[in-house]
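Pilot study result, target chain (374 residues):
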Amino acid sequence: MKILLVGNYLPDRQRSMQRFAAMLRDGLRECGHEVKVIRPRPGFGRSRKLGSSARKWLAYGDKYLVLPHTLRRAVEWADVVHICDHSNAMYVAHLRGKPHVVTCHDLLAVRGALGEETDCPASFTGKILQRWILRSLRRAQMVACVSTATRADLLRLAGPQMETRSSVIMLGVVPTLNAIERSEAHARLASLCGIKLGRPFLLNVGSNLQRKNRDGALRIFKRVSRQLDCDLVFAGEPLSKELQQLKSEIGLNGNVIEVARPTDAALEALYSTAFALLYPTKFEGFGWPAIEAQTCGCPVISSNSTSLPEVVGNSALLRAPEDEEGFAADVLRLTEPVTRNQLIVRGFENVKRFTPERMVSDYIELYQKVCAQN
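Predicted structure:
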């Protein structure tokens, strides 16, 4: 089968979307399929002399003016086209009736643009863009949602006609992540500024998006630090000015460490040595960090919102995002070795559901289905 994957604009630095496209590409090729990846190339939006706002607007030219011309030519080669991120769903208008699939990772921005509370506020132009995405999803031949929670949002917002034109294919864990020996992890972490080897730390992985609830993680850690001598490591996007200010206001300057945009090797080491993943996120389409942590033997303390209960089930300690006292109590529960070990074992069992091989196999089956429909 000849499969054309439509990926994301690299300057947007959507690391999770890049990972997803790479996992599909590699897995499909290992199964013997021909795969090409196409994505918007930086052209209008690549100038570093312009401000970020100007580059953002010019990047729309790369995405919505230039790529469609390239895409219309590329689809002739393919048996099936897979748009890897629903935020690019508008490309379905250029597929000329070619069998296709769109993966929907979440509809939180769409919901925010429609006035729902998802911690994803939208500007005037953002509302236009998100409505365009929703209209395009309605036109898609098949939408693969990464969780039943996300599919429920799709059916509610896009209409009951999506019942037969959507399915659930949950993500696979990144194949390069595994539990590693503590000595190897320490060797990798030795060069990271601020990490104190051998000292326990809680880990939070993600961005500063409001829905990620990093401010809540700071307040939870403040409660924990009164009884447990440890650090809090934020891996991913550097803390915003507002979060830096909150950190200072509650007196955590010496115990909060930032690891900006870690490599996969560094992230693997962080997961493998963390006391626990502290993940009080408010809204998720899936929740990749939870299964990444479990793959590396890291216990997970997570919110019970949106997709997380179906992703982790009874393999993690779950709390309502606003229950900061409960989160702190769960961290302290893990000081009991039996409880901690039980959670680690459950985590290893849970991630067996999320192999990349299973994810790729499910997509191949879906490709065959949409091709048969045509």
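One observation from the pilot: Residues 52-74 form the longest helix (23 residues). A full batch analysis is planned for the follow-on phase.
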